[in-house]
From TrEMBL:
Residues 15-225 are annotated as: Phosphopantothenate--cysteine ligase. It catalyses: (R)-4'-phosphopantothenate + L-cysteine + CTP = N-[(R)-4-phosphopantothenoyl]-L-cysteine + CMP + diphosphate + H(+); N-[(R)-4-phosphopantothenoyl]-L-cysteine + H(+) = (R)-4'-phosphopantetheine + CO2. The keyword Flavoprotein applies. Its cofactor is Mg(2+); FMN. The gene is coaBC. The chain holds residues 176 to 400 of 400 of the full protein. Catalyzes two sequential steps in the biosynthesis of coenzyme A. In the first step cysteine is conjugated to 4'-phosphopantothenate to form 4-phosphopantothenoylcysteine. In the second step the latter compound is decarboxylated to form 4'-phosphopantotheine. This is Coenzyme A biosynthesis bifunctional protein CoaBC. In the C-terminal section; belongs to the PPC synthetase family. In the N-terminal section; belongs to the HFCD (homo-oligomeric flavin containing Cys decarboxylase) superfamily. It comes from Streptomyces incarnatus. Binds 1 FMN per subunit. CTP binds at D103, K113, P131, D132, I133, L134, F151, K165, K169.
Amino acid sequence: LVRGATGPDLEGRHVVVSAGGTREPLDPVRFLGNRSSGKQGYALARTAAARGARVTLIAANTALPDPAGVDVVPVGTAVQLREAVLKAAADADAVVMAAAVADFRPAAYAAGKIKKKDGQDPDPIVLVRNPDILAEISAERARPGQVVVGFAAETDDVLANGRAKLARKGCDLLVVNEVGERRTFGSEENEAVVLGADGSETPVPYGPKEALADTVWDLVVPRLG
Ligand code: CTP
Ligand code: CA
């Protein structure tokens, strides 16, 4: 792993990172999920620990080894992720929402396995909205000067969509990926632009998720209260 001359600039800080993707159960054997691997969030946790931070990693359905020296909290659903993030954020200096949170969950959970019925079409799946965790923690900072970072995958006018999302969420930084031929999900590499609420725009060239993670911390450090 090749890293820059990054010192222990997160020493004495507590940072919270969410990673992976939530799963919203339909019945005991099925869920609605997404393709997030958790690798970007784990890279953020590893790099923060390397820079001296105390790190809480809220891991939604990941299959990755626990990073050394990091407090890992496993969760399943968006509602569980919200609980875990809010709890950990209470004394956090920075919160980075790298997890892919399901926007909707099934309105009902079937306690028994859903079965086919002869000659009948399936029932539609009714969905309800999940809480927007990033918007909530941005609006109600648990600590003055707490830095909040979001992630967004966008298509079409990526920067305009990113700017609008940053404003809507109220976070300090938004890491925007273009979804395209170079797939983000599951890959070891990433390419992004980090937008700041102060109007800043930091392009991060295609490269390892660790490099993007270090750039995120480079931008968080000067914003810490
Ligand atoms: N996020 C969240 N809670 C949700 C949905 C998203 O905290 N219920 C966070 C994600 O972790 C990410 C950021 O918000 O850091 C942006 O997620 P994204 O899905 O791009 O935003 P949405 O507002 O859901 O917009 P869209 O309709 O484009 O999916
Ligand atoms: Ca979404």
